[in-house]
Design a protein that fits this description.
6-stranded mixed sheet; alpha/beta; about 20% strand
Length: about 160
């Protein structure tokens, strides 16, 4: 991971419920399902565990949903950049193939040798890898410029 050859996909930390309330809006956390205090602790613990394993800094990308952005920031691994390809399509499953292709293309185009952590949603990770991660679970994939990412491992660090 330190050489940028593999990428950690992280499902956001604990956020009670499913989906988002009717009328939710990006950019307005008061309208969304957010991290619980346990989820905030979980995100901090995941970041601490990654640092203990030697990952001090990473390029951190996140869905624009508040629960993902908060998870990404609480990891404490670096600045967080919003990446719309990581946004949830739970409420609009018709976007699954388009959005998964966008993420696949984005991953294949990455040339930086820096470690990457992508904070997203269960539906996105499942569409890309076939894995159904728990909240706060990492799915590690190997980047490939000529094919979809290949699963390396899954990990629960907190």
């Amino acid at each position: 991971m330190k050489r940028g050859e593999i990428v950690a996909l992280l499902r956001h930390a604990l956020a009670p419920g499913t989906g988002d309330p009717d009328g939710f809006r990006l950019g307005d956390c008061s309208t969304q399902r957010n991290l619980s205090p346990a989820g905030q602790d979980q995100a901090r613990a995941i970041g601490a565990r990654l640092r203990a394993l030697g990952l001090e800094r990473a390029e951190v990308f996140s869905s624009q949903w508040c629960r993902c952005l908060e998870t990404a920031r609480l990891l404490g691994l670096g600045e967080v950049e919003e990446l719309p390809a990581l946004n949830s399509f739970f409420a609009d499953p018709g976007q699954r193939s388009v959005q998964t292709r966008q993420l696949d293309t984005w991953l294949a185009a990455q040339t930086s040798a820096k470690p990457k952590v992508l904070v997203t949603h269960q539906v996105n990770i499942t569409a890309l890898t076939g894995i159904v991660p728990a909240s706060g679970e990492l799915v590690i994939v190997r980047r490939a410029s000529d094919a979809s990412p290949r699963l390396v491992a899954t990990a629960r660090l907190a």
